[in-house]
Amino acid sequence: MGVCPILFIILDLFRETGMPNQLKRFLGFKLPVVHPFRALSCLSVKMLKIFIGLVVAGLVIALVLENYNTAKHPKRSINNSNSNRNHHGDIFYNTHPYPGAEMDNIFWFVQVSDIHISRFQDPRRITDFEEFCSETIDVIKPALVLATGDLTDAKTSSKLGSQQYEVEWQAYHNILKRSRVLERTKWIDIRGNHDAFNIISLESVNNYYRKYSATKKEGSFHYIHQTPFGSYSFICVDATLTPGPKRPFNFFGILDQTRMDELSILESKSLNSNQSIWFGHYTTSTIISPFPGIRQIMSSAVAYLCGHLHTLGGLMPVLHSRHPQGTLELELADWKDSRRFRVLAFDHDLLSFSDLSFEEWPAVLITNPKAAKYTNPAVEPLGRIQSSTHIRMLLAGQQ
C-alpha cells in the first residue's frame, strides 16, 4: 500500500462550515504487575536502588544549583529580563503578510529522538528506522530533520553496563546511506548521553560519532535555514559530558561558563532571524548550568526541542512545558520503544507541531490557526491569526 505525497490544504473560512477533527495523538501503556524479586536478580535490584538514589541526588543538586552561581565570574544582571525578547518588535505583531489562500511563507521540518540503535535489543528498531528514513521522510518532504541524540544504545547485553559498539554506529550510518535521506533533506544529528558513554576524550578511537554521524560536530552550533521569505535559526545545545562516564553517571548534562558564553554569542547572532529554534538532547531540568541558567539564555527562542526522558516508562506520554520567560519546551517521546516523531512548521512565523506515531496515517498538522496553548506572545506575530482568511494545514496519508 502506497502513501501519497504531503498535501498543503487551505480552507476558505467563508466557504467551509466545519473545522476538521484533530486526530488523537495520545499513546498509553499498561505496565504488567511483576514482583521485583521474581523478575530481577539480587544484583539487578541493588543496581536499581543505586540508580534511583543517584537520580534523586541529582535532582536535589539541580534544584540547589537552579539559584546558585556555579560560575567563576560575578553574577550578571538580569534586571532587564525582557531586553532580548520580542526581537521582532511590536510593528511586526500584526502586519502583512497574513496566512491566506496562497502556499507561501511556510516551511516544515521533522524531529526524531532517542533512536537507540542496538546490537542486542529489538531488531525491528533498525528496520523501522530505515523505513522511516526512506519512506516517511520521502512522503513528508521536510526542509530539515533534527535527530536529537541517543542515536545508538551503547548498552551491554545485560543492560547494566555501557560500551560503544562500532557495529551499532555502522548500522546507523548504513541506514542514512542506503535510504539516501541525506540527498533529500538537511539531516542534523547530535549526541545524547548514550552516544558519549565510556568516551575518555573527543579524540578517542571509540568516539564513533565523529566517524559515522551526518553532522560529525561536537559542541553547540548555529545552523541558519534560508528561505525566500527570511532566515530561521536553529541552535544546538550540547550539554554532554567530556570525558563521558559509564552508565548511569551521565544522566545529567553540564554547561560550564565557557559553553554558556558560546551559547550567548549564538543567541545574539540569531536575533537577526525571523524566528529561532533551540534543540538539544537533555531537557533543561536535567542540565546543570551557571547563572543565569540555560533557560534565560534561550529566552528569545520560540521553542526548545529535546528528548532524553522518553515517556518516563509510559507514565508521561506528553512532556511539554513553558519556561517562565515564555519559551516552549517540547520533549519528544522516543523512537526506541514508542516509534514517535514530530512534524513542525513555521507558517508566517507562527510555530505549529504535531507528535505522530510511525506508520499511523493520515499525518495532520494544522498550521493556521495554531493551538492557543502553544503560543509564545513574546516572539510570535499572533495578530496575523486574527487577520488571516483561511484555515491552513499539512496532510499526508495513504492512497
Written overview of the protein:
This protein is globular. The longest helix has 24 residues, at 42-65. The strands form four sheets. It has a six-stranded mixed beta sheet, with helices on one face. A five-stranded mixed beta sheet has the order 4-3-2-13-14. By secondary structure, it is α/β, with parallel strands linked by helices. Helix 3 (124-140) links the parallel strand 2 (106-112) and strand 3. The protein is 23% helix and 22% strand. It is built from nine helices and 16 strands. It has helices at 36-39, 42-65, 124-140, 166-179, 181-184, 209-212, 257-270, 294-297, 383-387; strands at residues 7-12, 106-112, 144-148, 186-190, 221-227, 230-237, 253-254, 275-280, 287-288, 303-306, 319-322, 328-331, 340-347, 350-357, 363-368, 390-396.
Architecture blueprint of SSEs:
Elements: E1 7-12, H1 36-39, H2 42-65, E2 106-112, H3 124-140, E3 144-148, H4 166-179, H5 181-184, E4 186-190, H6 209-212, E5 221-227, E6 230-237, E7 253-254, H7 257-270, E8 275-280, E9 287-288, H8 294-297, E10 303-306, E11 319-322, E12 328-331, E13 340-347, E14 350-357, E15 363-368, H9 383-387, E16 390-396
Parallel strand pairs: 2-3, 3-4, 6-8, 7-9, 8-10, 10-12
Antiparallel strand pairs: 1-16, 2-13, 5-6, 11-12, 13-14, 15-16
Helix pairs in contact: 3-4
